[in-house]
Specification:
heterodimer; A: 81 residues; 7% helix; globular; B: 497 residues; alpha+beta; UbiD C-terminal domain-like; 9-stranded antiparallel beta sheet
């Protein structure tokens, strides 16, 4: 699985993306483009979260990925909105 | 008439490409459609969509037109020969919209769009192959449809084409711009009362409807009445399942629900009609309560890029006529007005008297007072003999005649700024402020007589007898491409009945 998050959210929560902290974020699946609210652990490198899925930060203005290498996301729980 | 009739019309004139091999809704259908727009000028019917057996996508739906004859799609939609001249097309178009025909309501049993009905949690927009259109988009988008809403004060129903992002099975959002009647104004009226705004999204149906969905009609005028006038018969409408809105009965898919008061979600980015990516915004959340559809529905889409697409072939033909009608009704004296075939934000006008600066200023005032001009910051005026629908000639006039010191007229930064245009800083665009307008006088007017230039082209440089001889013998001289005649400009064509 691959996901992306919006740039603004990535900037706001950047300091929590250490692979340890549990965060609640909205992510969009890159397979079917359905948006999910999830509890997850996120790291800025797949090396920190070895079994994680890939996470891309989509630029708010351009739509292009902001990160050259994928970050890692371990989805722990899908939340009901 | 319905979308399937339009597909058949394209097939009859050999302008439809049916693709039976499996195609992915994820970028592949859009990629093929854009290339068809660019090189094949054919509508593309995708019969085999990955993961969606029995469903079809339909792209490049406005494919008939070319850059030189962008009204041809409209001719075919209106049942006119595609060879119809621009003048005749525009005259007939304006005659028809001046004779609107209100729609006829039919029973639900007679409405094809009710063949399948899914309510509540059974409704899922991802049951349909909603395409992922551009690699930079924030999600999958519906791109060719009407968002239907009713004014809670007057009961007037608006049918407008806004991009719609599919976020979850029952969760959508749409770009609702502040100057749009239905999209933003009606929603805000409900939201101010703490009420959700009922909506329907009508996809498919008679393709001539799309012409009216993108029309900037005056407040209170119903798009379906105008579509009836264009078609020459009433549109068939049916009542929605969960609200009292009327939707085209021959639609392929109807999505019903409510726009939630004050609840905003991330919408975008989306590669827009301008050919540039419009960034993410907060827009209202649409909750889906019901979806009805035809069996084996066809989902039309428009993948707008810098190529010639629905924006140039359907919308542009409509918009230039809106300006014509408004300026004519305001008593402005002009010869013609055309939207650039490559640039929907630039218009070309031809004035009757290039020496009359007052009339040109009136042209500018009326043009920039039109509600559609929030999308159009520039236009250029040329002499009456310039065919502004072929702007390569108008570009020359601009380069030769527009004196940078005298002929660029720039307004104050007092106009509404449009988030979809990119010539000003993004914070100003998002606030809708600080937009200037520019018009360029590229006429030969107001120059001393001795400086008046003699124009130099085939039609005026050579004796008529010699022109006629060359034309008649063109093939005999060995040329394999047909002789190209430029239609002479008729300064009174807009005024003739």
């Amino acid at each position: 699985m691959e996901y992306f998050i919006v740039e603004e959210m990535a900037r706001e929560m950047e300091n929590k993306f250490n692979g340890q902290e549990e965060v609640e974020v909205e992510v969009t699946s890159a397979d079917d483009f359905v948006r999910h609210l999830v509890k997850a652990k996120i790291a800025k490198s797949l090396d920190i979260l070895p079994n994680a899925d890939k996470l891309w930060v989509r630029g708010d203005g351009t739509g292009f990925p902001m990160n050259e290498e994928p970050w890692g996301i371990l989805v722990l729980e899908e939340k009901e909105e | 008439m319905d979308l399937r009739s339009w597909v058949d019309s394209l097939k009859k004139v050999d302008r439809l490409q049916e693709i039976d091999v499996e195609v992915d809704w994820n970028l592949e259908a859009a990629t093929i459609s854009v290339m068809s727009n660019r090189v094949a000028r054919k509508g593309v019917l995708f019969n085999n969509i990955k993961g969606y057996p029995g469903m079809k996508l339909f792209g490049s739906t406005g494919c008939i037109s070319t850059r030189k004859r962008k009204w041809e799609t409209s001719c075919l939609l209106m049942g006119l020969p595609v060879e119809t001249s621009r003048k005749e097309h525009h005259k007939e178009f304006q005659r028809r919209i001046n004779n609107p025909i209100p729609p006829t309501e039919v029973a639900k049993a007679e409405a094809p769009c009710k063949e399948v009905i899914k309510m509540g949690k059974d409704a899922n927009v991802f049951d349909f192959p909603v395409p992922y259109l551009h690699a930079t988009d924030g999600g999958r988008y519906l791109s060719l449809q009407a968002v239907v809403q009713k004014d809670p004060d007057t009961g007037w129903t608006n049918y407008g084409c806004y991009r719609v992002m599919c976020i979850g099975p029952r969760k959508l959002s749409a770009l609702l711009l502040p100057m749009q009647q239905g999209g933003a104004i009606f929603y805000q009226k409900y939201a101010a009362r703490g009420q959700n705004c009922p909506f329907c999204i009508a996809i498919g149906g008679d393709h001539i409807l799309f012409t009216t969905y993108v029309f900037g009609l005056p407040a209170g005028v119903c798009e379906l009445d105008v579509a009836g006038g264009l078609r020459g018969e009433p549109m068939r409408v049916v009542r929605a399942e969960t609200n009292d809105l009327l939707v085209p009965a021959d639609s392929e898919i109807i999505i019903e629900g409510e726009i939630l008061a004050g609840k905003m979600v991330d919408e975008g980015p989306f590669a827009e009609y301008s050919g540039y990516v419009h960034g993410r915004m907060k827009n209202p959340e649409f909750r889906v309560d019901c979806i009805t559809h035809r069996k084996e529905p066809i989902l039309p889409f428009a993948c707008l890029t810098m190529s010639l697409d629905e924006d140039n072939t359907i919308q542009s033909t409509t918009i230039e006529q809106e300006y014509m009608i408004t300026l004519k009704e305001s008593g402005v004296r002009f010869v013609d007005i055309a939207q650039g075939p490559d640039n929907p934000n630039f218009h070309y006008g031809a004035v009757r008297d290039p020496d009359d600066i007052c009339e040109m200023t009136r042209f500018a005032e009326e043009f920039f007072a039109h509600k559609l001009s929030s999308y159009h910051h520039w236009f250029m005026l040329s002499d009456p003999d310039i065919n502004v629908d072929t702007p390569d000639r108008a570009y020359r006039e601009f380069a030769l005649n527009a004196d940078p010191r005298r002929d660029f007229h720039v307004t104050d930064m007092d106009a509404f700024n449009n988030p979809l245009l990119f010539d000003t800083p993004s914070d100003e665009r998002l606030k809708g402020i600080n937009q200037s307008k520019v018009w360029i006088d590229a006429t030969t007017g107001r120059k001393p007589k001795e400086q008046k230039l003699k124009k130099d082209q085939f039609e005026c440089d050579f004796p008529e007898t010699l022109q006629k001889k060359v034309k008649e013998n063109w093939g005999k001289l060995g040329f394999d491409r047909p002789f190209e005649e430029i239609e002479p400009v008729d300064p009174d064509w807009l005024l003739k009945p």
